[in-house]
Backbone:
């Protein structure tokens, strides 16, 4: 046996494209993947009948579609249609080479049908069987292949991971310790969530490891641990490139099947109409009768024997090259050198038609060359002690290695909607704590819609502009379905029937796969459930710059108010914090970051901070009025009151004209304007000092009654409760 | 007023349209409507006695909607605001105050933002000027290994944004750098007033490190010497009731 390892990882994924109505073009993606990739791979695994060291990741949408009887039935129909088309073609006057190619497909589609029926139409059972035989390792990816680094919250990333694992476990009976992260996308912190969800390894592209800090001593010759303890296996681009590269790779050989030439485009419409879309659209039949041939557009017919024999040559070439590569690295110890080769599974068979044959034959050549094929899981079992821990930056296996594919001018409009859904999910699970069937089902349906929307396939397709309309429509559809469900939940218009109908339209994930409280933080649970509920109603909001100012009556007044049974909230300036003191909720806010130069702008910053705190409280506390104590906080108090339809009460200690008697500068003018506006917008004005009365009446032309303020005012808000009735 | 709002709401008018029709503010209508909706919830639990305008909810045959128990539902005071929609039925903006930056590449981040009506109103009140008249700017702040809350920065720069913008690809940036991005207005006296501030975002490295900055922090974390990792992790928990204690 040679020193070193090879590890093949295949990731099978399609977006969830199951539609109840027939003839959706996108559903054919699934048929093609089954016919060209999934079953041919199973054929090879079955033929070899031995531990292969392969790891196959099957994404939850693929798992769910493979298990879906509607898809299964339609797939069989599709096979039968194709066999009929082949028969019809064979009736035509054909040259020998074309006839031979068709005869090959006839046999192949027959075999597909026999295999599919033999496996009980559910390929999950077959993959599970071979896993249980020990021939291969299985894993899955996140629920809908969402692009984790761009999610807003930890909860969304966790929901994707956990739901994906739950789905896999429901179909395969166990939880894998490895997880394929969509697009090999990694970002610092993602590993924490993965580790907490039981994941011990995943894959990244080679530049992610090469640019790690500290630089790993084995480069891409070994996995590394992320800081939170997830092993990251690097894609080896040189070795992978031999397989997928269009320039140096095998699939472009003249003997192999030509992907872009389908029978559908070589026939008159009348000849194939019956097998095409009823609305007159032409699509691939899957009968691709030509071979790559060469650079020219002139393509020769496919000769199966030649292609078959070519895979022998390529399998041997690959094994030999790999053997040399391993020998060159044989000096590496602790751990020994490993070549990790992760691919999209559909590359083998769908894109490179002969790919599954090649993979099978490669495994046989490995035996000749003494190459050990190992799964990452097994590698870790043997060498977990010999792996370095490093910081890995954000990276993917996409174009240019980062996120250019998933965020660019073609698809950037999507992200804000997804983030809003995340925020609203957190709100929904925090606010709706009762566990009756309807509410729990509604929360799960909301998460289902979010997950279907967050699939990385939609921005990916928009980036490529191939079936952009479908992707954009699906994305919008799930956002709107989410909103409608949420609206009905809030309005108590939901029924179990309605939710069942919604589910039937996209029957993706069982309810038990989805844990709504993934979106709940302990803090939100505290606020929604444990925090005193009576604090939330009929509250008074006091706004002031300095709550404890000994010259002002705010603190004493607030405490007396609380003692009289009012719910009293104070927002004041100070180091960010909260205290509940003598029945008063005191929130301090501060402005930090780069300092502002001008006083009036510093005030704007303070008011923004006050406003943010008021907005936050307003999510759960229902205020009945705003009582402002300082001109400095007037803009926040006034706007908050006005926008929420609340009465504004203002206390006046002194006026700007008293504070800056000779002031005429811009600042004084601005403050006076602000002061006047706030007073004119106040429903009730209290004077702390009589001296201010003149100024209010004369400078600001306020015609309202100016009431005298005392800290022990009996029922201070009697004048604002029913302002109209009191005249 | 409430009776009118309910009537118009049933006719399918948006909060905005209702506000225009009855010559009130959106805020007031929204408030009255959410209060009414909340009263429905409470009435349902307490088997309705007041609120003459409260219409009994239709229930679908065979399905009972269980009445919420007290304390288990927090009424949605601001949960689903009525929003303007585009031709596809998607919200054109959200009544939210958020700026968020995500990585596109080692030298570019994508930023989007939302500013609520309330925040606009406050700025207009404070500066006694219309929102349109403000000069909007974006400030890019390099805070690598700095504590921005204490005002520490490595460097920053700002630039004017065109009107009607709510997204920006910020480039070129430096790889392996932590940024905070602020959206704000340039005041008449030349200050930049930050209105929205992003969480820190870190551009990835694009080349092998020679003398990196992570060896020590990774080791400290690995050996349990620190409670929290000393690097930026973007996937933090989002708390809906953040800032409420």
Residues:
């Amino acid at each position: 046996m040679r020193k070193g390892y090879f590890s093949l990882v295949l990731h099978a994924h399609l977006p969830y494209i199951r539609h109840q109505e027939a003839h959706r073009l996108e559903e054919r993606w699934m048929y093609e993947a089954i016919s060209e990739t999934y079953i041919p791979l199973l054929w090879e695994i079955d033929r070899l009948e031995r531990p292969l060291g392969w790891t196959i990741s099957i994404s939850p949408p693929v798992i769910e579609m493979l298990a879906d009887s509607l898809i299964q039935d339609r797939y069989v129909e599709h096979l039968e249609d194709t066999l009929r088309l082949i028969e019809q073609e064979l009736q035509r006057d054909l040259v020998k080479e074309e006839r031979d190619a068709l005869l090959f497909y006839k046999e192949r589609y027959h075999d597909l049908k026999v295999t599919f029926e033999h496996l009980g139409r559910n390929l999950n059972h077959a993959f599970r069987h071979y896993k249980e035989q020990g021939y291969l390792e299985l894993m899955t990816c996140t629920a809908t292949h969402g692009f984790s680094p761009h999610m807003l919250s930890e909860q969304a990333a966790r929901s994707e991971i956990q739901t994906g694992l739950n789905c896999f476990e429901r179909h395969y009976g166990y939880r894998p310790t490895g997880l394929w992260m969509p697009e090999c996308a990694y970002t610092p912190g993602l590993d924490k969530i993965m580790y907490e969800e039981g994941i011990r390894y995943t894959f990244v592209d080679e530049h992610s490891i090469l640019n790690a800090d500290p630089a790993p001593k084995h480069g891409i010759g070994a996995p590394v641990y992320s800081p939170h303890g997830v092993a990251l296996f690097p894609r080896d681009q040189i070795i992978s490139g031999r397989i997928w590269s269009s320039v140096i790779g095998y699939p472009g050989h003249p003997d192999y099947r030509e992907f872009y030439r389908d029978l559908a485009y070589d026939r008159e419409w009348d000849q194939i109409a019956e097998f095409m879309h009823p609305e007159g659209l032409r699509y691939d039949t899957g009968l691709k009768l030509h071979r790559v041939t060469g650079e020219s557009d002139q393509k020769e017919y496919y000769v199966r024997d030649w292609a078959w024999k070519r895979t022998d040559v390529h399998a041997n070439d690959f094994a030999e090259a790999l053997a040399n590569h391993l020998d060159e690295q044989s000096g590496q110890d602790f751990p020994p050198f490993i070549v990790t080769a992760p691919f999209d599974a559909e590359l083998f068979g769908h894109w490179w038609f002969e790919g599954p044959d090649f993979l099978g034959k490669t495994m046989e050549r490995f035996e000749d060359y003494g190459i050990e094929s190992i799964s990452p899981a097994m590698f870790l079992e043997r060498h977990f002690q010999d792996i370095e821990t490093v910081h890995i930056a954000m990276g993917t296996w996409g174009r240019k290695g980062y996120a250019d594919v998933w965020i660019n001018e073609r698809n950037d409009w999507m992200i804000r909607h997804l983030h809003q859904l995340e925020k609203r999910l957190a709100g929904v699970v925090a606010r709706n704590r009762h566990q009756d069937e309807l509410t729990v089902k509604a929360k799960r349906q909301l998460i289902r819609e979010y997950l279907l929307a967050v699939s990385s396939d939609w921005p990916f397709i928009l980036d490529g502009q191939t079936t952009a309309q479908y992707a954009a429509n699906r994305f919008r559809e799930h956002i709107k379905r989410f909103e409608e469900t949420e609206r009905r939940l809030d309005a108590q218009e939901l029924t179990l029937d309605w939710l069942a109908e919604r589910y039937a339209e996209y029957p993706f994930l069982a309810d038990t796969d989805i844990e709504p409280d993934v979106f709940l933080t302990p803090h939100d649970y505290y606020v929604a459930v444990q925090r005193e509920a009576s604090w939330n109603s009929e509250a008074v909001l006091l706004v002031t710059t300095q709550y404890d100012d000994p010259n002002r009556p705010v603190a004493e007044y607030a405490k007396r108010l609380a003692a009289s049974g009012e719910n009293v909230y104070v927002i004041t300036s100070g180091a960010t914090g909260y205290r509940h003191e003598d029945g008063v909720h005191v929130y301090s806010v501060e402005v930090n970051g780069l300092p502002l130069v001008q006083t009036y702008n510093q005030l704007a910053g303070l008011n923004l901070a006050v406003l943010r705190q008021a907005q936050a409280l307003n999510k759960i506390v229902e205020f009945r009025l705003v009582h402002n104590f300082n001109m400095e906080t007037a803009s926040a108090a006034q706007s908050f009151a006005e926008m929420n339809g609340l009465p504004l009460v203002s206390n006046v200690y002194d006026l700007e004209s008293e504070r800056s008697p000779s002031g005429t500068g811009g600042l004084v003018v601005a403050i006076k304007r602000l002061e006047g506006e706030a007073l004119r917008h106040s429903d009730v004005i209290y004077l702390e000092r009589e001296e201010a009365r003149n100024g209010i009446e004369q400078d600001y032309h306020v015609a309202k009654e100016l009431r005298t303020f005392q800290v022990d005012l009996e029922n201070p808000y009697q004048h604002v409760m029913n302002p109209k009735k009191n005249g | 007023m409430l009776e009118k709002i309910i009537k118009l709401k049933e006719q399918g008018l948006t909060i905005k349209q209702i506000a225009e029709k009855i010559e009130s503010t959106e805020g007031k209508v929204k408030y009255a409507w959410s209060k009414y909706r909340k009263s429905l919830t409470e009435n349902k639990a307490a088997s309705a006695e007041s609120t003459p305008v409260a219409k009994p909810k239709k229930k679908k045959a065979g399905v009972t909607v269980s009445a919420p128990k007290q304390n288990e539902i927090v009424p949605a005071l601001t949960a689903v605001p009525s929003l303007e929609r585009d031709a596809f039925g998607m919200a054109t903006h959200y009544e939210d105050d958020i700026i968020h930056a995500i990585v596109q590449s080692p030298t570019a981040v994508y930023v989007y933002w939302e500013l609520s009506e309330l925040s606009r109103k406050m700025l207009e009140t404070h500066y006694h000027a219309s929102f349109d008249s403000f000069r909007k700017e974006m400030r890019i702040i390099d805070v690598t290994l700095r504590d921005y809350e204490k005002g520490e920065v490595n460097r920053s720069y700002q630039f004017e944004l065109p009107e009607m913008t709510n997204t920006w690809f910020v480039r070129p940036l430096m790889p392996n750098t932590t940024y905070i991005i602020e959206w704000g207005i340039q005041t008449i006296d030349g200050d930049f007033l930050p209105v929205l501030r992003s969480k820190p975002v870190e551009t990835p490295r694009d080349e092998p490190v020679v003398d990196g900055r992570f060896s020590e922090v990774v080791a400290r974390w690995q050996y349990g010497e620190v409670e929290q990792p000393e690097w930026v992790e973007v996937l933090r928990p989002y708390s809906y009731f953040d800032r409420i204690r």
